Amino acid sequence: MAEIINLKQVRKARERAAKEAQATENRVVFGRPKATKTREEARKSLEAARHEGHRLKNPDSEA
Questions:
Q1: Is residue 39 assigned to a domain?
Q2: Where do the segments described as Disordered lie (predicted)?
Q3: What is the pLDDT along the chain (63 residues), one digit of tens a residue?
Q4: Rounded to whole angstroms, what are the CA distances from 9 to 4, 18, 62?
Q5: In whole angstroms, how far apart are CA 38 and each of 14, 19, 50?
Q6: Per the domain annotation, does 61 fall within a domain?
Q7: b (16+ CB within 10 A) / e for 17-56
Protein backbone atom coordinates (compact mmCIF):
# COMPACT_ATOMS: atom_id res chain seq x y z
CA MET A 1 0.00 0.00 0.00
CA ALA A 2 0.97 3.57 -0.52
CA GLU A 3 2.09 5.72 2.36
CA ILE A 4 -0.56 8.18 3.50
CA ILE A 5 0.64 11.77 3.69
CA ASN A 6 -1.05 14.86 5.00
CA LEU A 7 -1.04 17.39 2.15
CA LYS A 8 -1.53 20.28 4.56
CA GLN A 9 1.66 19.38 6.42
CA VAL A 10 3.60 19.02 3.17
CA ARG A 11 2.37 22.40 1.95
CA LYS A 12 3.29 24.08 5.22
CA ALA A 13 6.73 22.47 5.25
CA ARG A 14 7.36 23.67 1.69
CA GLU A 15 6.28 27.22 2.62
CA ARG A 16 8.55 27.18 5.70
CA ALA A 17 11.50 26.10 3.54
CA ALA A 18 10.77 28.90 1.04
CA LYS A 19 10.56 31.48 3.84
CA GLU A 20 13.85 30.26 5.31
CA ALA A 21 15.54 30.53 1.91
CA GLN A 22 14.24 34.09 1.53
CA ALA A 23 15.43 34.95 5.05
CA THR A 24 18.89 33.63 4.22
CA GLU A 25 19.06 35.83 1.11
CA ASN A 26 17.85 38.85 3.11
CA ARG A 27 20.52 38.26 5.76
CA VAL A 28 23.17 38.46 3.07
CA VAL A 29 21.71 41.55 1.39
CA PHE A 30 20.54 43.59 4.36
CA GLY A 31 22.77 42.28 7.13
CA ARG A 32 25.83 44.38 6.27
CA PRO A 33 27.43 47.08 8.40
CA LYS A 34 26.97 50.70 7.36
CA ALA A 35 30.63 51.11 6.41
CA THR A 36 30.40 48.19 4.02
CA LYS A 37 27.21 49.56 2.45
CA THR A 38 28.72 53.01 1.88
CA ARG A 39 31.93 51.53 0.48
CA GLU A 40 29.93 49.37 -1.93
CA GLU A 41 27.77 52.32 -2.96
CA ALA A 42 30.84 54.49 -3.61
CA ARG A 43 32.43 51.72 -5.67
CA LYS A 44 29.30 51.32 -7.78
CA SER A 45 29.02 55.06 -8.44
CA LEU A 46 32.69 55.22 -9.43
CA GLU A 47 32.25 52.29 -11.82
CA ALA A 48 29.16 53.95 -13.34
CA ALA A 49 31.03 57.22 -13.81
CA ARG A 50 33.93 55.43 -15.50
CA HIS A 51 31.54 53.51 -17.73
CA GLU A 52 29.70 56.69 -18.76
CA GLY A 53 33.04 58.40 -19.37
CA HIS A 54 33.85 55.96 -22.15
CA ARG A 55 30.78 56.84 -24.23
CA LEU A 56 31.55 57.99 -27.76
CA LYS A 57 28.54 60.32 -28.08
CA ASN A 58 26.52 62.27 -25.59
CA PRO A 59 23.02 60.68 -25.40
CA ASP A 60 21.38 64.17 -25.23
CA SER A 61 22.86 65.26 -28.56
CA GLU A 62 21.40 62.27 -30.45
CA ALA A 63 17.81 63.41 -30.00
A1: yes
A2: 31-63
A3: 789 999 999 999 999 999 999 999 999 888 888 898 899 999 999 999 999 888 887 667 654
A4: 12, 14, 60
A5: 36, 28, 18
A6: no
A7: eeeeeeeeeeeeeeeeeeeeeeeeeeeeeeeeeeeeeeee
**Three-class secondary structure assignment of the chain:** CCCCCCHHHHHHHHHHHHHHHHHHHHHHHHCCCHHHHHHHHHHHHHHHHHHHHCCCCCCCCCC
Q: In total, how many domains does the chain have?
A: 1
Q: Is 22 a domain residue? A: yes
Rg (CA), the chain: 24
What is this structure's pTM?
0.47
